[in-house]
Structures are given as structure tokens and as C-alpha cells.
Amino acid sequence: MPETPTDVKAAPDDASKTASGLASKVLSKGSGAEHPSAADTVTVHYSGWTTDGKMFDSSVKRGEPTSFPLNGVIKGWTEGLQLMVEGEKRRFWIPAALAYGENPGGGRPGGTLVFDVELISIKKAPKPPELTAPADAQKAASGASFKTVSKGSGTQSPKSIDTVQVNLSLWSPEGQLLQSTDQEGGPANIPLEKFRIGGLSEAIQTMVTGEKRVVWIPANVAFGPTPPPGVPAAGIVVQVELLSFKAGVPPPAAPSDVAAAPGDAEKTASGLASKLLSKGSGKDHPKATDTVTVHYSGWTTDGKLFDSSVTRGEPTSFGLNQVIKGWTEGVQLMVKGEKRRFWIPAGLAYGDNPGGGAPSGTLVFDIELLDIKK
Question: Which of 83, 112, 131, 253 is 20–30 Å from 326 (CA)?
């Protein structure tokens, strides 16, 4: 258990101070020669106290150091750790304005905070590529530009339904690092259809495994005609390396009767309609308290697919009393191995105006019941 510093109440006279009001004192010198930059990722051991000597956090107490991008923490840490070198231990007195404020709420400590920090290691942030598309960059149909900086060894490119494993780093046009998989634990596995940055999925679909490419994306292409607050107004610069990709499953076609339940569909008193697609081999029906494993696809009545475990290539499990009412009622009609189509009215689904991205109105689901767990 780290001991409370004797000078926890206020910085002593021999502490060094910066223009921002940050005070610090070297406790033991380090062996390193370089200081981290704000974009770098650091690994540290630390303990923190309020000025009345109360410890509120400590990686030392947990017995495990912590790592983080230096520009993703309180201002006092971002500024203070840039004064340090590897191996150094330093005490900081961080005023409220550089910490969480005087009355932050949410369980965070207020006022001046005191930290003992040991800088264990520095992982340098990736260096930005050319920040303006060169004349020999290729132009994509979306309006983005791209250029290959190292060729890959693969022969095939991913399709829009595939999942790619990539290294990604994003910069503002001024060279500020916005995000990097290097700082987030390694490569990311992302379905191409889930990329939220316009133009990036398109660029990756013309790459091969092992290829590294820089993509320059205007703001209106990356984020639409009205970019959200906080994003660079001039767009972003992305460096992407395609490590591998996994073939996706083509989305199931919308049922021919998606617009409305046909005349031969079964209906319950609640308004739920369903039709058997293929019989199952089981005899028992699940209860609302059981956990079921299913494959499913869901459409709105205009034929738009909004969710599918089939395209993800992985069934899903859940407590049957933890889903929409139409599922809780409907799946209890089924036996193991059965496939059934449901037309679920809004009152048994998410309603007519659910918000939060949930689909509205009557929903249509094809469900295969794979397993029942009591």
C-alpha cells in the first residue's frame, strides 16, 4: 500500500512549476533519454490522493501498471508526463482546472490532486504520412483519394460483406493523430459494411492482403454533408494496412411475403402471425424462462434487412424473457430444429417510433431454433 506523501497538502517550495499551474518534483531519476509526446502511448505505475491524504486510485495497489495514449487523459497528466523520461518517478500537484474540476460528480475526485507517477515505457505514436494527396494519388468514385505505399502479397480483394483485419491510423489534415490501432491493443477486425467513415470501405475493397495504403477523405465524404461536432472540417487522412480478411455470408433475400402475413399464416390473440418454414426434430417447446440459441434474420415490411446472425456467421443466445414480446411469445411455439417466419406487430416489437436506431412498425423475422437450455 503506497504511503500518503508528507507534502500532500500543497507543493513544497522546491517543486518546479509550469505556466499552467502544474507543480512537480522528481522523486528518482530515470534511465531514458527521450520524453513522450502527447500522441504517444505510455505505461505507468501511479497512485493518486486528494489533498486531505485520501487515496482514490492506485495501479500500485492493484499490482498492475496501466497504459494509455497521453492525449486521452486529464490535462495535468498530458502536460506532466511529457516532462519525464523512462524509469523516472515524479510527484505532481495538479490544480483542479488541469484535473476534473472542483465539483466533477460521477465519483471523480475534485480539487487539486496529487499523483506519484513512475514512467515505465513509451510507445511512440505512428508518424503521419503526407497530409495532402499528391498528384499521383488515385481518385475514387466517392471523392476520396488514395495511394499505395507498400504492395501486398495477396491476389484477392475483400468484398463489401467481408470482415477485414486491419491496422488503422487516422490524422487530421494538420497532422494531429486522432486514433490508431497501435495505441488500442493491436489490429482491429471490422465488417466492411460497418465502417462509419465514408470512402474507407471503398478503398479497402481494392486492396490485397499485406498492402498498406494512405487514403485522403474530404469531410463531406467521410462524415456526410453535415459533419458531427469535433471532427476535422477539412476531412481526415487514414493509413490502412490490410492484414487479412474473412469471407462474409451473403445477406438472405427478403421473403416474398415480407409486406404482410399471408392468409395461411397462424395468428395468436396478441396479433402475432407466423408460418412454419421447416419442421424441427425436437419435441419440447422452450419456456419464457429458458435460454435459446437461434439463427435469425429480420426485415422491415419494405424488405430492408436490419439485422441477421446468418450474415455474421454466428448464432446468438439469450434469455427468452429478455427480448421483444413477439420473440418471447413466438419462439415458445417452436421446437428444436424448426424454422419459422414471424410477422410481429409494432406493439410486440419496438413500437412505431422507437428512436435509438431500432426498427419501427411491423417486423418480419425468419428464425431457426438451434438449442434450448433450461
Answer: 253
pTM, two decimal places: 0.63
> Cα 143 vs. chain centroid, distance in angstroms?
26
| Alpha-carbon span 256 to 6, nearest angstrom | 76
pLDDT digits over 242-270, tens only?
999 999 888 899 999 999 999 999 999 99
| Candidate list 100, 146, 245, 365, residue with the active-site label | 365
**Does 223 qualify as catalytic in the annotation?**
no
**Given this chain, do its domains 138-246 and 266-373 carry the same CATH topology?**
yes
Query: In this predicted structure, what is the pLDDT of residue 231?
Result: 72
Verify whether residue 100 is a known catalytic residue. Answer: no
Q: Which member of 284, 306, 318, 352 is catalytic?
A: 306
266-373 maps to CATH 3.10.50.40? yes
Class of domain 16-123: alpha beta
306 counts as catalytic? yes
pLDDT at position 213 over 80: yes
365 noted as active-site residue: yes
Three-state DSSP class for 264? Answer: coil
Cα separation, 180 vs 163, in Å, equals 19
Q: Please pick, among 296, 342, 344, 366, the residue that the annotation labels catalytic.
A: 296
Nearest one of 327, 182, 319, 162 to 250, comparing CA atoms = 162
Fold category of 138-246 in CATH? Chitinase A; domain 3 (3.10.50)
**Annotated catalytic, 257?**
no
The residue extents of the domains of the chain are 16-123, 138-246, 266-373
